[in-house]
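Tokens for GTPase Obg. Go.
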Amino acid sequence: MFKDELKIWVKAGDGGNGCLSFRREKFIPKGGPDGGDGGDGGDVILEGDASLNTFNKLRYRQHYKAERGEHGKGKNMHGKNGEPCIIKVPLGTIVKLFDTGEIIGEILEDGQRLVVQKGGKGGRGNARFATSTNRAPRHFEEGEKVEPIRLKLELKLIADVSIVGYPNAGKSTLISKISNAKPKIADYKFTTLHPNLGIVEYGSFKSFVIADVPGLIDGASEGRGLGTRFLKHIERTRVLLHLIDGASPENDYLSDFLAIRKEIEKFNPEILKKHFVIAVNKADSLCCKDDLEKIKAFAKENNIPIFIISAVTGEGLNELVNELGSIVESVKGREIKEEVVKEKNEKLDFLDEV
């Protein structure tokens, strides 16, 4: 089962209580206050883990609790801070407050940490309250208490390339041929019920991540065929590879492409700004030569790369992979430049404020 949504309860650690204590030693009959502070409670932290692709490992546990801070002790001994609770999540995780839907943050990089709830502050011991007029305070603070909160975790896969198209177009076969993914493959519709991720290697030690998104159908943007569950996984992708079944006599290649594009537009128009590549699959058994010429003309007119391939025989796959890799490299390079410019502008804005 592919788990891409999860509800969990988390509770950071309570702060330890401050201590009420007075120094008691031989020959010192009236020692001053020496109560130590309580330790801080542990935080609840989400940490990105690139080895995870789903929430499957988290589905059987819904409650997470960090360690509370130790209470302060006499002789000015402060309590130990509580250990944090670290929850490993896949990259692409969006963290929301369950009750309000407010987004707390996103986990996008391996090792990235997000504190979703801070631990309670430890209370002060009575030694902290000593003054020139009150040398024996009997006042101390209790540690800060923390109430549990409910979180909703949503996963949007991070992939360089996503394969989209109608069911049975050969997406699973293609990703199994060009990457290390091993999806279920069968000759019937909706074989793929969840996205599959794979690493595609090309050129000299180059690679990109590819996702096989389950087949979309008309009305997917309204949720038909679990369309919205799957469409969200292409929002972070850099390139969309539209795979068309070239062997279906009922298929109009151009209508196929435009229909899926329309569903994507209804779901999120911003996705259409991404790079598109068209691949007509099953070149070994093409049945509609006129349709092929139509979609070739459309692709040329709209500057969309198009390839005629066969995922089974391997025809055209090298050319397709190299083109996808080239586009991914170009997009990543542009993103890096934009990030550098953004950081530069932020520094200039900061200097202007100073």
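The chain has two domains: 1-155, 161-337.
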